[in-house]
Amino acid sequence: MRSIVKAGRVLEIPGAASVSGSAAIALHDGHIGDVEAIDPETLTSVERGLLAMPALANAHDHGRGIRTAAAGAGDDRLEEWAASLMRHPKVNPYLVAAVSLARMAESGVAAVNHCHNPQDSDLLYAEAEAVSRAARDVGVRVAFALPFADRNPFVYGDLGRLIERLPQEDRPPIAAARQRSRAINEALFERIATLEHGFFQLQYGPVAPQWTQSETLKAIAIASAADGRRVHMHLLETERQRQWADAVYPQGIVRHLDEIGLLTPRLTLAHAVWLRPDEWALLGERGVTVSVNASSNLRLRSGLPQTAMIRAGDVAFGVGMDGLSIDDDEDMLRELRLLRLLDGVTGERPMTPAEVLHACCVTGRSTIVGDDGGGRIAAGAPADMLVLDFAAMSRDYVRDDFDVTSIVVGRATRRHVRDLYVAGRRIVGEGRCCSVDLPALENSLAAEARRAVAAGDIPGDRIARLQAGISSFFADGCHCLGEEWTGSVQNATEPSA
């Protein structure tokens, strides 16, 4: 199929700040054909006000069709907040994935690193199949990070020290929890790999060092080296994680990851809020990419993005929403602005608008689909293109010597998204997802979630007691004891000595 998109302005290569005038862009067989300069007088008034640019990439997300606050998990410190996710209702995984991807598409996102949070670890294949199907239907490119987590449920360290802080009646469900038991399963991984297609690729997803045994991380490093697949992992998101890592890995957690072969250009690290300058330098030397998630770090009280140290270490970075955009609206364009504003406060030299766009459109994209020539508007590049209503963004400007990239990063939101093309297919038209019926999907998902809650919900007071126990565990420094809990979760019902 061939189509022509006309726009009054074209941002060709984010990072180079190369903006051309009116053009007709041909899309053919999933790629960009000719980009032909045309007389602006031949455009309609609407076309003259449009800006065509490479589509956005969400470098780190969890695909939450039901937003966490709506499910009863209000913003809090990460460790306490994670406990409240137990109240999240179990629903049709296809609805969750399709709603999440369609909302992202309406924000201009054509590709996403999807770090899967299973609703049921025993049904991982079915959930992966649902995400694969939703990716194809919506038309967003998905890198599916299959989660591996076989360490430290609920807290970092001895689970018994948490259990002893809970009332007797609350101990059995915590002791029996199995959500942190997903070690390497080669057969499952290979089975999910059969679900791959042009919009769904499988990655290794060790959740984080505090949640994944070192042996498992080493096995993943070996497997990634053998098959070339990328690895996506959280690292040092919170100060408590930093303190735990310093106690357990006195030689340095980042150095340890390097020693087991995990630090390579195939690795993407999410958050990395609590790294030190020497660790940033090592990541830069190894070619690791980091996903910066400003909204999430603010909402979960984790800290500020270390963009100055990222630049000092010459570390490549993308931008992610983590399923926790600042206004709970999956607005990737606003996420870019928030990141730049925070960088202006914490960095000696704030990153330029062009640098922010390059991080999102080019670097972030490469962590999802690899170096496929995308992230630019040029002949032969993949036809992943975002069209914005630039006229609406700049209507009040009284000078003609403005910088287009500054206006986009400084003002654009999802309401300025007009069209989104992925592989040449228009999946958003005039601001609305047109590949699936998003309002109908949202209604179905909400109705199913309410039925699930009505059928059986974990009482809020039980969650509050668990959160109080978690807070006490960390306040008493139990995560800094330098000891590892290695017993069975089911047997950890007695208080620690």
Written account of the structure:
With 497 residues, this protein is α/β, with parallel strands linked by helices. It has 2 domains: 2-54 and 377-433, Urease, subunit C, domain 1; 56-152 and 183-376, Metal-dependent hydrolases (TIM Barrel), CATH 3.20.20. The protein is 38% helix and 19% strand. It is built from 19 helices and 18 strands. It has helices at residues 45-48, 78-84, 93-105, 124-138, 159-163, 171-175, 186-193, 214-227, 239-248, 253-259, 277-286, 294-299, 307-312, 332-346, 353-369, 390-394, 404-411, 438-455, 460-475; strands spanning 2-7, 9-13, 18-20, 23-28, 31-37, 50-54, 56-61, 109-115, 141-148, 200-206, 231-235, 267-271, 289-292, 316-319, 385-389, 417-422, 425-429, 432-433. The protein has a 7-stranded mixed sheet. Strands 7-8-9-10 form a 4-stranded parallel sheet. The chain has a 4-stranded parallel sheet with strand order 11-12-13-14. Strand 17 and strand 18 form a beta hairpin. Helix 3 runs parallel beside helix 4. The radius of gyration is 23 Å and the shape is globular.
With strands numbered from the N-terminus, the spatial order across the biggest sheet is 3-2-6-15-16-17-18
**Outline type:** globular
Beta-strand residue fraction = 15-25%
Instruction: Count every beta strand, where a strand is a DSSP E run of 2 or more residues.
Output: 18
Distance between the termini: 69 Å
Overall mean pLDDT: 93
The low-confidence parts are 485-497
CATH fold assignment of the largest domain: TIM Barrel
Annotation keywords:
single chain, 497 residues, alpha/beta, Urease, subunit C, domain 1, TIM Barrel, 2 domains, 7-stranded mixed β-sheet, 4-stranded parallel β-sheet, 19 helices, disordered C terminus
